Amino acid sequence: MDVEGKRVRIKAKGRIFEGVAMPSSTNSFVLKLDNGYNVGFTEYELLEVFEEGKHGEEIAALEKKESLPDIKIISTGGTIASKVDYRTGAVTSQFSAEEIVGDVPELAEICNIDAMLLYNILSENMKAKQWIELAGEVYKAIKSGYEGVIITHGTDTMAYTASALAFMLSTPAPVILVGAQRSSDRPSSDAAMNLVCAANAAIADLGEVVVVMHANTSDDTCHIHRGVKVRKCHTSRRDAFQSVNYPPLGLVSYPSGEIKWMAERIKRGERELKLADRLEEKVTLVKFFPGLKPDIMDYYYDRGYRGFVIEGTGLGHVSTDWVDSIARISEDSVVVMTSQCIWGRVCDRVYDTGRYLLEAGVIEGEDMLPEVALIKLMWLLGNYDVEEARSLVNKNLVGEINPTTRYWEVEK
Amino acid sequence: MQDYSSLGLRVGIEIHQQLDTRHKLFCYCPTIQRDAEESNFEFFRYLRSKRSEMGEVDRAAKEEVARSKKFIYKAYDTTCLVEADEEPPREVNREALQITILIAKMLNMEVVDEVHMMRKIVIDGSNTTGFQRTALVAFDGHIDCNGKRIGIATLCLEEEACRKIEDRGDEVVYSLDRLGIPLAEIGTMPDITSPKEAKDVAAKLGMILRSTGRVKRGLGTIRQDVNISIRDGARVEIKGVQTLDILDKIVEYEVLRQLSLLKIKDELKKRGASVVNKVFDVTDVFANTKSKVIKRAECVKAIMLKGFAGLVGKEIQPGRRLGTEFADIAKTFGLGGIFHTDELPAYGVSKEEVEALRARVGAGNRDAVIVAAGKATRVENTLIRIVERAEYCLAGVPEETRKANEDGTTSYLRPLPGAARMYPETDVPAVKITPEMLKVEIPELIEERARRYTKTYSLSHDLAYVMADSAFYHLFEEFAEKIPATTVARVLHTAPAELRRDGINTDVLEEEQFRMVLELIEEGRIAKEGADEALKILCENPRATKDEIVDRIGSASDLDSFIAKLVEEKKDFIAEKGANAFKPLMGLVMKEFRGKVDGKVVAEKLNRAIKSMLQA
Ligand SMILES: [Zn+2]
User: Fold this and answer.
1) Catalytic hit among A76, A79, A152, A221
2) Cβ-nearest to A86 among B116, B140, B420
3) Do the bridges between strand B70-75 and strand B171-175 make them parallel or antiparallel, or are there none, so unpaired?
4) What tens digit of pLDDT does each residue of A12-62 get?
5) Residues B248 and B288 in one domain
6) Which of B48, B133, B172, B438 to mutate to test the interface with A (most CBs of A within 10 A)?
7) What does the DSSP assignment read for B163-200?
8) What pLDDT shows up at residue A97?
9) pLDDT above 70 as % of chain A
């Protein structure tokens, strides 16, 4: 008999207990006692199951304020808003506009919100298919007049999605990706503040795909990162996202919502709305390490891959053992060199190895992040032939490549 | 003397005891206290509460959020990202769990088969996460106290909260050093029926906990919460009783408070009193006030309590009036306090102002007016809450959480939290309790050990208990076999206590230092009378070697004879100069002893010698 979630009376350890039967990942019987605690029993006798009515919750419909801009929130998973049922201990994600605003009431002061649940998947399960569908939804939203689009996203692959959108979508309005490093069921979650800052960025004078997340460990500012220049650099901290090789575009203060712009950006309305949403999936990213044989490249090539991003050492190197393989592959493929240093620009003209690689057909990925180069190549090969892709991959298209690298101080 | 049984007094005690583990409950940081000055990093956060399934925020949670405070945290080189809520917790510290199981066995409890860590919502900022991690480990035990059986309901293993350093009203500063220290929480059944029994039960539980030898000692390492109710009164939870000495008083005063509130209720009913549910802006009444507090304020507001005259100023606990309860509420909102007409005119508020105030809110002589001053929204929220509290005066005693004051009285802290504020801590896997984990060796109880010491070493009962309760009891047993037990007790207890009384910091004395002094006595290198001096030297320099100690005690005795000789030789000079003889003589002594004996010690001894010479 399935008693999960029901109120039960059991006998265990010679005593009688009442509480709510909980799901268990082991073979123990887990009971939530009336004092709130869960405890596990291995031996027990089920005495009684009580039927209880469901507790409903009335949520008032949101009223639109004419004076405020309309923003669309698209959920892809990850919990930006959630509800805890302290009776059963269950945590459920919230996706309707009413529920999100109920959780983060400040949003109603910033903009009118419409919300849609596109996916409810873990971000590591995202694929090109989802990126394409998401780009389509964002395109539709902007076309229908929303002043900005916020995409709530799991943080693990948020930067990949940001890049994919940045290449597929020429947008006149802000497209903001936002997430949380602490799940939104907890009082200390960064979700609400990130969302409030995202909403402020979504109504701002901005026309590109960005990531808005905590700028430091305190709850005072968020950074607006260019989508093709950002990387998750920490497994758990709130300020895990950092702009690499380009400063954050801006700093949003919390709770005021004021934005201080810190780098050159694409402004609202500067570009026309366009969608080029094809992606070639047979593109790969290979991280070189000392001793790695070039077989890995041949393996992919033989399976029909024609786009290769190498994460090389230092200025952009792999072992000279690779030169022949690369020369063969680059005949009809695009091979881009990036650096596992993450910071800095690739230059294959300094050492002999680099010069051999260039002769073999390697293209320097400039100051692009390896994963941005990967997505860019997916997009190029999805929309252009190999020859065109080769000529475009080291040209700046949406801010992914900068001609110069400067010193800067990041204000947090 | 109150007849507590006729009042239906029921008391339950909750003891929170820090465990002495190598590292914290959910990370590998040490369990040590730090000085806030040593903090190397600071950050701040806000906390939010969630709607529960019923669509209502927990009562206690709501009140905290209405204040929307900023929480500032101080981090150290002994805290990590886990305390900062920037990294998931590690698995439960097994050492802490094992100590908890030992405590469960000593309290005759049943241990659950599987321990599940929970998140208990606490949004006062004392936990960076907004919840306290806690697990129920055992239930249904008992202890016997003065021949009566007291039930032990639950034993939980939980994480200690942050240490509050400063409350700035809308900002609170917390220290992360304490957060995450393992804590055993023992809850008794409400079987206790008198103030004295409350104190005795708490003392007994404390003794049992210390008997494990695995708990922390010293101020702040154990805290008692007390649940008190009387018939017709209400359940009140009193938090943070730091010392056992006042536990009986806490109970006594709480009974007194509840009885007083019930009397006030009866009187209010008789008067047909009521509370006007309105907050009046009275800023202009005080336009030319001499009261500094009011003058400084952005806004002054008032509420009117019909028929309350004289009762707001009525004492309900020694030194505390009903008005003090209202002032406590104001303090939780970050205001300094309130004014009420039972105590006005005073504090710079004039008779004319009081009359104008009464006129403004429509209060007669039999009514009371409460005034609060400060920032507009804060004053408004405070007074709305005081209206609610005043209305409850007509119903009796409100259920609430109170804070223990040093004199045994209590102050309002927050409403009693609702029960259902917990959900599973999914980041921490449940722990199955294996039969091996339940095989624990029950240690000798301190009270049994004390009885043994009285018998074996012929110590007085008190001294035997002190030795048995000492963290260094094993040193006592080791050396009491070789040198007189009273001498060992002097080194371990009496002498350090005297040094403390003289203002010397004896915290640096650890097992190593005590052992050194005991060995010196055992080896006959210093006399037992030299123990105090040896300990004093070690207090100043814990790294001092045995030879250095022997040398210094040696030179100290040389110093005594030198001074005695000198004072005798200069008898006439002293008689002539009086106290002024000190300076020239000091020069002579220092010439001999500079570098060997502390100048302060020389001055002290010389002064004494001169004084006694003059008296003779
Ligand atoms: Zn730590």
Assistant:
1) A79
2) B420
3) parallel
4) 988 999 988 888 877 889 998 888 899 999 999 999 998 766 555 556 677
5) no
6) B48
7) EEEEE-SSEEEEETTSTT-EEEEEEE-S-B-SHHHHHH
8) 81
9) 97
* In the predicted structure, residue B23 carries a pLDDT above the cut 80: yes
CA quadruple B58, B60, B61, B67: dihedral, nearest 10: 140
Last residue of a domain, one of B266, B286, B304: B266
Q: Which residues 102-121 of B have a C-beta within 8 angstroms of A? A: 110, 112-116, 118-121
Which range is least confidently modeled, A87-96, A165-174, A252-261, B13-22?
A87-96
Beta-carbon separation of A85 and B52 below 8 A: yes
Q: Which of B328, B359, B393 is at the close of a domain?
A: B393
Q: Is residue B535 situated within a structural domain?
A: yes
Domain-located, residue B564:
yes
Q: How far apart are CA B89 and CA B81, in angstroms?
A: 9
A7-50 under CATH 3.40.630.10, yes or no: no
Q: What are B484's two structure tokens?
A: 């007189």
B97 in contact with A at a CB cutoff of 8 Å? no
Classified by CATH at the fold level, domain A70-275 comes out as: Rossmann fold (3.40.50)
Residue B98 within any structural domain of the chain: yes
User: Can A70-275 and A283-392 be said to share one CATH topology?
Assistant: yes
> How many angstroms from the chain centroid is the CA of residue B582?
46
Backbone angle region of B578, left / alpha / beta, with phi > 0 → left and psi within -120 to 50 → alpha:
left
* A70: annotated active-site residue: no
pTM of the model as a whole: 0.86
Is A129 one of the annotated active-site residues of the chain? no
Looking at residue B445, the DSSP 8-state letter turns out to be: P
Alpha carbon distance B562, B570 (integer Å): 12
Task: Tell whether B361 and B340 lie within a shared domain.
Answer: yes
Please give the single-letter amino acid code of residue B270.
K
Count of the separate structural domains present in chain B = 3
Facing residues of A308 across strands? A284, A335
Mean of pLDDT values over B93-106: 98
Summarised one tens digit per residue, pLDDT across range B266-314 is 999 999 999 999 999 999 999 989 998 898 898 999 999 999 999 999 9
Same-domain status, B243 and B280: no
Query: One of A32, A72, A232, A376 is an active-site residue; which one?
Result: A232
User: H-type helices in B340-460, by residue range?
Assistant: 351-361, 376-392, 435-438, 446-457
Neighbours of ion ligand 1 (CB under 5 A): B 27, 29, 80, 82-83
Q: Does B50 touch chain A (CB under 8 A)?
A: yes
Are B299 and B246 contained in the same domain? no
ipTM value, please give it.
0.92
Q: Which CATH code for domain A283-392? A: 3.40.50.40
Nearest-CA distance from B117 to chain A in Å? 8
Domain CATH code at residue B378:
3.30.1360.30
Residue A383: closest CA among A349, A348, A334 = A334
> Six-digit token pair at A319?
């072992």
SS3 B109: coil
Query: How many beta carbons lie within 10 A of that of residue B67, not counting itself?
Result: 15
Q: Which residues of A touch B227 (CB under 8 A)?
A: none
Question: Which burial class, exposed, middle or buried, applies to B28 when counting CB atoms under 10 A from its CB (0-12, 13-18, 19+)?
Answer: exposed
Q: Is residue B237 part of a domain?
A: yes
Domain extent for B600? 446-615
In a shared domain, residues B458 and B566: yes
| B256 and B288 part of one domain | no
Residue A118 Cα to chain centre, angstroms: 14
Domain boundaries, chain A: 7-50, 70-275, 283-392
Q: Are both B496 and B609 inside the same structural domain?
A: yes
DSSP state of A53: P
